[in-house]
Q: What sequence folds into this?
């Protein structure tokens, strides 16, 4: 039986709450995000002052606005440039709070499947990861997708890292004992165990160059792709969400390995260039161990020391699961829907 993703307690689906396919495909304007982007480039803050009371036009505008704000906090300075000086401008802070309050209200409506609601944190996360570990689109990728479709999918999906090293570094702030040690071990793996050539972001850069991966503009991505990218920024810039962040990152580790193995099958079938392989090979090999260790060495001792974190850790994993499921549903509609009946029947 096909596992169902986490659902809203009301009658709407995940895509309706987090940006669905109709909005993703048809609505491309981002008036607040565009005005914010322009204002951030100016040396005079008066343009920013005028934005503090604005509200986003829709979900696309909200997530595009948040992505601009999160870049001020987390993107390389050479990309952000002098706009970084406005990181804590009162108008930027006001926009951040407005947009995040709307989004958090939607995320907090998500509820765990009934059989997981009473499970302890480790068991709930393990079961949540198992329910949606291999979405149909990854099977389509492995068995059916053409090479241009594989490249398009990877350009949208971005791989399992997407700044994971920086997120782990932020998540460990203030932790202690086994949890801090586990996140340090995880981070060192992200750093190629000290080998510059094996740093995971370096491997991703080589992958992107080898397959000529396009950079897809925000206004050509589904809204759910923007939400998926923004989720890391939500966690990284809100210290109070540290328990949720610990759960969300753990879920990524639990699910990445099997998905990466299916990407490698697509590479074999399509004759991908040799330089494309190492990024997915390393994740297919180490992420199952990372997921197990994250549960046993980070979450389990943290919950033992801070029982009040347990529900919030699982909630963060649920948020990641829901946001990712909504994204994959939209990408399935974009790329694979006509062919998936054959793949799922096989």
A:
């Amino acid at each position: 039986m096909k596992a169902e993703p986490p659902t809203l307690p009301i009658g709407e689906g995940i895509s309706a709450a987090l940006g669905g396919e109709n909005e993703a495909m048809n609505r491309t304007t981002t008036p607040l995000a565009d005005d914010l982007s322009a204002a951030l480039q100016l040396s005079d803050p008066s343009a920013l002052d005028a934005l503090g009371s604005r509200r986003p036009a829709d979900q696309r505008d909200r997530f595009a606005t948040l992505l601009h704000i999160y870049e001020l906090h987390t993107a390389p300075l050479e990309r952000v440039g002098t706009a970084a000086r406005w990181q804590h401008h009162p108008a930027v802070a006001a926009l951040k709070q407005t947009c995040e309050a709307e989004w958090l209200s939607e995320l907090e409506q998500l509820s765990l499947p009934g059989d997981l609601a009473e499970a302890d944190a480790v068991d709930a996360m393990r079961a949540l990861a198992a329910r949606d570990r291999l979405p149909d689109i990854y099977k389509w990728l492995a068995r059916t997708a053409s090479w241009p479709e594989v490249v398009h999918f990877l350009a949208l999906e971005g791989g399992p890292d997407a700044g994971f090293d920086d997120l782990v570094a932020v998540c460990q702030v203030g932790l202690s004992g086994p949890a801090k040690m586990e996140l340090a071990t995880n981070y060192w793996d992200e750093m190629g165990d000290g080998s510059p050539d094996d740093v995971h972001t370096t491997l991703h850069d080589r992958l992107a160059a080898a397959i000529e991966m396009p950079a897809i503009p925000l206004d050509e991505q589904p809204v759910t792709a923007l939400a998926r990218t923004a989720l890391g920024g939500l966690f990284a810039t809100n210290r109070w969400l540290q328990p949720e962040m610990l759960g969300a990152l753990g879920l990524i580790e639990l699910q990445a390995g099997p998905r990466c193995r299916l990407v490698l099958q697509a590479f074999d079938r399509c004759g991908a260039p040799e330089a494309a392989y190492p990024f997915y090979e390393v994740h297919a090999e180490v992420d199952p161990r990372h997921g197990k260790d994250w549960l046993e060495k980070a979450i389990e001792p943290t919950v033992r020391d801070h029982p009040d974190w347990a529900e919030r850790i699982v909630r963060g994993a649920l948020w990641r699961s829901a946001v990712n499921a909504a994204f994959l549903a939209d990408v399935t509609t974009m790329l694979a829907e006509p062919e998936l009946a054959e793949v799922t029947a096989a």
Observations:
- DSSP finds 17 helices and no strands in the chain.
- The radius of gyration is 20 Å.
- Residues 14-107 form one domain.
